[in-house]
Amino acid sequence: MLEATNSQTETSSPAPVNAALAAEAKVARIAVTVFPILVVVAGVLGFLLPEVFKPMGVAVPYLLGVIMFCMGLTLTPPDFASVARRPWAVALGIVAHYVIMPGAGWLIAVLLQLPPELAVGLILVGCAPSGTASNVMAFLAKGDVALSVAVASVSTLIAPIVTPALTLLLAGSFLHIDAGAMVLDIVKTVLLPVIAGLLARLFLSKLVAKVLPALPWASAVVISLIVAIVVAGSASKIVAAGAIVFLAVVLHNGFGLGLGYLAGKLGRLDDKARRALAFEVGMQNSGLAATLATAHFSPLAALPSAVFSLWHNISGAIVAAWLARRPLKH
């Protein structure tokens, strides 16, 4: 989370308003450049060395817990206060996220006639909460970072109920869905770690402040490791399924980015808010989707999540750079 940007007031100046923001902008740009590279390297290693990474599959839920704990560490009371100040914008973002991406995932799976495991995997990605990198992309695109943080936080906190329910509704016709077990898994791997991180931030603020700069990199490394494990689990089937999965993911992510921006426009939000919603809708917590797919279905079902982990960071960085060069509309 980019807490320093929550109070940012510039609208069209291309440069950050102070030295702290300048440093943060530099770190953010490095992160969105290096992160996709890490994910690609991890995926290649998982494919070439499946015997090394496949046995680590049992650790995936714990690795996701580390990521969500890091997310909790970045949250502050003002992040939640912004929900009360702007309930319409936050509600619009949540509804758009949990309508557009699940619906698009189901539609693409049907139109491309994906095999059941891949179809469920794609739909599961769509039903996941916002991605952990969406706030960085909103910042780089000169979007409304406070809104981005609020939508990401709320979508994550309600995921234990919404994600299993939507997955059961949309993917139940492809494979058996144990929604109850999925609820418990999301509570253990997402909700509890986020709450633990938030409490640590409140009661151990000085200690947490020292480690905050390292959190994005820790999350990037852990997400890359999850991708390597997921790819290793389905390495034998990637050659046959890779092309169709990549096409499905590109379409899914593209729908999310475009329709997320359009939702903000239809909701009469300003341009900064529209930019934020584009990333909050189009970027998913693919680590959670991969964890759930591996635990409840198969490594092949987790393949769309692994591809999404790579692609949405590449597309997000490209779209953010493009939007950053366009003047804000008033």
Q: How does this structure look, described?
A:
It is a single chain. With 330 residues, the chain is an all-alpha fold. The protein has helices spanning 19-48, 50-53, 60-74, 77-85, 87-111, 116-127, 134-140, 145-157, 159-171, 179-203, 205-211, 215-233, 235-266, 271-282, 286-296, 303-324. Helix content is 78%, strand content 0%. Helix 13 packs antiparallel against helix 14 (271-282). It is globular, with a radius of gyration of 18 Å.
Can you give the helix content as a percent range? over 70%
CA radius of gyration is 18 Å
Q: Characterize the largest beta sheet: strand count, sense, and whether it forms a barrel.
A: none
**Anisotropy-based shape:** globular
Q: What ranges have pLDDT less than 50 throughout 5 or more consecutive residues? A: 4-21
**End-to-end CA span:** 26 Å
**What share of residues are in beta strands?**
under 5%
Q: How many individual β-strands?
A: 0
Protein structure class: mainly alpha
What is the element string, with H for helices and E for strands?
HHHHHHHHHHHHHHHH
Number of continuous helical runs: 16
Mean pLDDT: 83
